[in-house]
Amino acid sequence: MLYSPETFHHQVVTPTLKELSLYHPELALCLTAIALSPQLPVSDGFGIYQISRQQHRRIWDEQLATNPDLASRVRGLASQHRFLRDPDQELILNPCYATAIAAHLLIPGSESVQDIEFPQLTQRWCHMNQTSELTVVQNIDQLRLQLFT
Predict the structure, then answer these.
(1) 124 confidence band (pLDDT: 50, 70, 90)
(2) How many CA atoms lie within 13 A of 88 on its CB side?
(3) Contact 97, 103 (CB under 8 A)
(4) Share in percent of the chain as helix, strand, coil (round to 5)
(5) Which of 36, 82, 98, 149 makes a 20 to 30 Å CA pair with 9?
(6) Residue 101: which of 44, 40, 51 has the closest Cα?
């Protein structure tokens, strides 16, 4: 990763979640830990979160297409021309956009970020992407120490 954990957390994840009105400290920690965790490559996964083409399309079709304001804010994180040519490339080249899509994978449109129990986030992600839950939890614990001590 090109960023230190602190930089990624404070300059990518936190501002992205705030832009989307999804900020919660535990969600930010979870997304940072996921981005830093070694993941099994998903056969058609893209970028630091290894989001598949199907997952990406599902977020747009099931959550963003029905919420124009939110769709506009997520789309505003993407490159104007690249997104139109190949939206999946945004998952590779744009960490803020990838973080926005990853957040929506973790927090379905029907759930509020305030209502989520955060151990569920790691379980949900690890189930979707065949990632070791222990690795993500260890990364969260390490990040807590780095960021808040």
Answers:
(1) confident
(2) 12
(3) no
(4) 70, 5, 30
(5) 82
(6) 51
Contact yes or no for 16/96 (Cβ under 8 A):
yes
Can you tell me the mean pLDDT for 74-103? 93
Cα–Cα distances (Å) from 81 to 26, 59, 75, 124, in that order, read 33, 20, 11, 32
Q: How far apart are CA 122 and CA 1, in angstroms?
A: 20
pLDDT tens digits for range 13-34? 999 999 999 999 989 988 998 8
**Domain residues of the chain, as ranges?**
5-148
Helix axes 25-36, 133-148, angle to 10 degrees: 120
> By C-alpha distance, which of 148, 146, 36 is closest to 102?
36
Please, which pLDDT band fits residue 95 given cuts at 50, 70 and 90? very high
Measured between alpha carbons, how far is 48 from 65 in angstroms, rounded to an integer?
A: 24
pTM of the predicted structure, to 2 decimals: 0.87
Beta-bridge partners for 51: 46
Q: Is pLDDT larger for residue 44 or for residue 17?
A: 17
